[in-house]
Amino acid sequence: MINDIIKETKDKMKASLHVYEQDLQGIRGSRASTALVDRLMVSYYGQDTELRQLATISTPEAMQILIRPYDKSAVKSIEKAIQTANLGIHPNVDGDVIRLNMPALTRERRQDLVKFLHKRMEDARVAMRNIRRAANDDLKDFEKEGMISEDELERGEEEVQKLTDQYISQIEELGKIKEKEIMEV
CB atoms < 10 A from the CB of 111, how many? Predict the structure, then answer.
């Protein structure tokens, strides 16, 4: 029973960490990254669709993203989605491709990105702590119902805490790497 809770907790924490990693990819660093736009929602024939399903996205140069739609009629919709996403990048339509030339990051913009990064890190830590609380609540319920002993409750809580510490340290590590990437000139 305790092992089931531990496994479930680990799976939830792993999923939460994965979401955090994807968030980090969307935060702009010193180089252009396709992750900045690949999950952008585009209104395509009245249906919201992720940009990566509508186009090939590449980085031909360090500071440029090239979007090549599979359907040429989607160019206008993609351009509009990029403008409304407020990424701070103006899309340049060149026939049937869209080029996003990344402006150099100013010191102020880097600091803003780092603040945003710290907020995302804290959100991820809070998510881990919420998962821990839910697992501990389940363990306490099992103990109240007499399904596990007090010692087993204590052992389970220790296991959950170890998992929490492990995943929070991974969040911190990924955040430090991303912060270094953002501050790199």
Answer: 13
What is the value of pTM for the model shown? 0.73
**Domain count along the chain:** 2
CA distance 55 to 173: 33
Say which CATH number the domain at 49 has. 3.30.1360.40
- In terms of residue numbers, what domain contains 160? 2-26+106-183
| Burial track 62-95 (b if 16+ CB lie within 10 A, e otherwise) | eeebbbebeeeebbebbbebbeeeebebebeeee
Q: What's the whole-number average pLDDT of the chain? A: 90
- CA pair distance 179, 165, nearest whole angstrom: 21
pLDDT of amino acid 36? 82
Which pLDDT score, from 0 to 100, does residue 151 have?
A: 93
Over residues 24-41, the mean pLDDT reads 80
Res 185 pLDDT > 70: no
* 22 and 112 fall within a common domain: yes
Task: Say how far apart CA 165 and CA 77 lie, in whole Å.
Answer: 44
